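User:
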Amino acid sequence: MRTEGGQRHLRIRKFSATRTGIGVLAVAALAVGGVLAAAKAPAATQPTSSKWGGHLSISKEFFGSTVEPYTGQVTPTFRYTMTNARGMKVQLLSYGATTQAIWVPGRHGKVKNVVLGFATLADYVKFDSPPVAPTTGVYFGQTIGRYGNRIAKGTFQLKQPSGVQTYTLQINNGPNSLHGGVVGFGNHIWSQVGSLIKTHDEVGVTLRLVSPNGDGGGPAGSPGCTAACTGYPAQITVDVTFTLNNHGQYGIHYNVVNDSSNLNTITNLTNHSYFNLAGEASGSAANQPIFINADNYTPTDATSIPFGTITPVAGTPFDFTHAKPIFPSIADCTQPSSQACTQLVQAQGFDHNWVLNNSGPKLHGLNLAATAFDPRSGRKMRVWTDQPGVQFYTSNFLNGTLIGISGHIYRQTQAYTFETQHFPNSPNQPNFPSTTLLAGQTLTTTTIYAFSS
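Assistant: Predicted structure:
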């Protein structure tokens, strides 16, 4: 692991506990036309509009069946519904450990779903991240891995006990590997760990995925692999715990164990929810004020790979250190030939990594990363994390071809993401915080999306 001074690294601890019942899963390609036993699985249902009534609860229901890529077997999926006493509800799928809907009351108690998604399992399998290179999909609500964001040309080097090794990954985004490759964590069916979480403080569930050594690879000529791809080294076991409490905090806690005794690996997990605090069917979110607690960002080349420089946001459209609406920021290119304006043109909006500040408010030891606000409804979201970066993406490539969970067409600027993360292409940038997870060690990281009105 690199130890550059003053940089944040993966939080790790030695792992010695013995787990049972977890085997190495075989890699299998996911057929786009896979069996969907419940293609008409119900859409996310709207909670009552009572702002303060009710209590903490969690339930589980069947959501349909589809092919699990690791096994090639048709496997059931489930939907978990978490509610709190303030009228907020989160609906989570075991397919892709995907956040399907987050229902939040506004200042007058009217409840809206504030994330983009699909109504059925069939739509998630077909459209969310279809496993056909180079089509990468939209990743609505998915848990992203093994490596969130991009790795340049799908290759990196990593020091192993046997020496420095070169690894190659599936190419699925121009010349690069994005969000784990053709078949990422969002294409898999996660298993429930233990019982549902029910305490006086919160409700929730832990979902698990075991990613084998070589995940994200394939033989020559397979999707994303012109030549043979090695995939990621080492088996890892990923447990993600999703919780909701009465403070409107939707917590996502990641626990990643490198199961190998002799292979190091890399990992960078995130959640890919698209937010619109006015409601997912309300149209453009471009006038919602955004704050990002970052004095710097990482500019990219034309393929969205960072140059490796840490660049100040001051005086550019990338400066969200004071809350401002998205659209004037995108349009505010007073110096069209500047680097910042070139960045906006290349990405067709914002799709960049901000380098988060350590300063500012804290919640349970987490830093404030960003806030968003909808003036009409009064809904506000605060994003808290221990990660060094956040990818702010303004849904630049929603082109009107997808129909969302409520039957409405999704278009550009309809929503935005706050993907808490390590920086893109970190394994190839020695000056970026390290994403190496050593053999036998464990990574833990937490992000909280907190809602209020």
